[in-house]
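Thread amino acids onto this structure.
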């Protein structure tokens, strides 16, 4: 991927977004604490993820103290309780000695995330979803309108929240769509002349961006493992052109057979397939050829609704049409 000194530079460019994400994580942790009066499993997970993303233990404690109006002794008692309950993800987080923060040079998870974002954004660390919303063509060149900055920054924040592992997809999407519509934004215009409602455009951009970031992380993992084969994830309701779900293919076949890197191919727009390193003779497939054949047969079965018959893919497309209407 990138050298450590390059990653340091990228992390500095991405720092405002990372700080904003940490603030959102801790705000949600405090919200949970105020409701429950203790560190729940969900709050413990979020604290763990915030720490792994570079937030120091001291900072976590300080935020909880300030926002909850607690003394240091009361926070220590809260920490002791979560350790005693036995579900703490990382008990060392609630100790009072040891490393206060994971040094960037030792934080492999954060380095891999920043490296993937750098590759996705062609190293400028902006527009992670690669959305072309609010773009117009002037003199043959693609130019973004001022509104695009707000839209892209909002989606960037959503992307980081989800790939950080601290928030789930539905919660984040609900939040960002609410933010944008409350700001008066209703539709997203594209250079092609196409127009989408905010929720449709945001959902597509975020899902596509996450898929592409995941692909870059998996490519990095494959390189580290020396793997040249990949298993493509299978999912229900796939579009007919994406028939290769569940298959094991070579790196070259990801491009030639599955269209990786194209708009309509693997990890393209609205594609929900991911792919993972696969080592023949060691890795075990999620589905055998026989199981895939049975799954595909069930996908093609038609069910009657409203006087018409639909297979699984046709039904999902009709559902979206109804939702949009």
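Threaded sequence (325 positions):
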């Amino acid at each position: 991927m990138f050298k450590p000194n390059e990653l340091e530079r990228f992390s500095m460019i991405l720092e405002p977004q990372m700080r904003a994400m940490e603030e959102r994580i801790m705000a949600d942790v405090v919200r949970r604490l105020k409701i429950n009066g203790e560190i729940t499993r969900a709050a413990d997970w979020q604290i763990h993820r915030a720490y792994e993303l570079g937030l120091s233990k001291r900072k976590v404690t300080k935020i909880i103290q300030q926002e909850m109006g607690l003394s240091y002794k009361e926070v220590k008692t809260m920490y002791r309780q979560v350790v005693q309950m036995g579900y703490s993800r990382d008990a060392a987080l609630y100790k009072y000695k040891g490393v206060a923060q994971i040094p960037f040079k030792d934080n492999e998870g954060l380095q891999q995330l920043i490296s993937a974002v750098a590759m996705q954004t062609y190293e400028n660390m902006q527009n992670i979803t690669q959305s072309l919303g609010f773009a117009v063509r002037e003199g043959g060149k693609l130019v973004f309108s001022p509104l695009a900055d707000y839209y892209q920054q909002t989606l960037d924040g959503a992307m980081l929240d989800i790939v950080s592992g601290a928030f789930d997809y539905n919660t984040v999407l609900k939040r960002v769509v609410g933010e944008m519509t409350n700001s008066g934004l209703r539709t997203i215009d594209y250079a092609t002349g196409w127009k989408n409602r905010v929720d449709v455009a945001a959902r597509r951009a975020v899902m596509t961006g996450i898929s592409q970031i995941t692909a870059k992380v998996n490519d990095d993992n494959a390189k580290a493992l020396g793997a040249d084969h990949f298993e493509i994830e299978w999912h229900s309701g796939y579009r007919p052109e994406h028939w290769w779900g569940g298959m094991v293919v070579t790196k070259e076949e990801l491009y030639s057979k599955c269209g990786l890197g194209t708009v309509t191919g693997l990890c393209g727009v609205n594609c929900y397939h991911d792919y993972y390193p696969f080592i023949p003779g060691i890795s075990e497939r999620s589905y055998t050829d026989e199981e895939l054949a049975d799954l595909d047969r069930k996908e093609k079965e038609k069910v009657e609704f409203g006087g018409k018959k639909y297979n699984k893919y046709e039904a999902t497309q009709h559902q979206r049409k109804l939702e949009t209407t």
